[in-house]
Amino acid sequence: MSFFDKIFGGNNQASDQKSFWKNIKSEEDLEKAIESSYQHRIAIFKHSTSCFISKTVLKNFEKEIENADQEVEVYYLDLLAHRPLSNKIAEDFEIRHESPQLIVIENGKPVNSASHQDISLSQIV
């Protein structure tokens, strides 16, 4: 890892990813996430692996989840690697794309969304 990667975050997200994340890497993964929203609320975290702010927000959000009293179903989307999926989410749910962004879905519909420092576990539970 280079000096600048250590300071600005680098692109080693996959190796550091927490076990509670469910990855969205295909339209099938997205469809499964939406299907799951009919049983309970789910959230999709859209993350830019090249953005220091996004990485900071992600780490803070992960700490909230790790310290939570209840389990939540959270999906992770690397929007740089899967930009067409990010665009599909924005279009299908009629939510303007932002990064980082948390979109909460219940019964196949968005019920909440937040970006940047407004992202919090309280939006899901």
Automatic annotation (TrEMBL):
User: InterPro entries in the record, alphabetically?
Assistant: BrxC, Thioredoxin-like_sf
Q: Which Pfam families is this protein grouped with?
A: BrxC (PF11009)
The cross-references to SUPFAM superfamilies, in alphabetical order and at most eight, read: Thioredoxin-like
Recorded superkingdom: Bacteria
NCBIfam families for this protein = B_thiol_YtxJ
Tell me the protein's name: Bacillithiol system redox-active protein YtxJ
* Native organism: Chryseobacterium pennae
* UniProt lineage: Bacteria, Pseudomonadati, Bacteroidota, Flavobacteriia, Flavobacteriales
Q: Which gene encodes it?
A: ytxJ
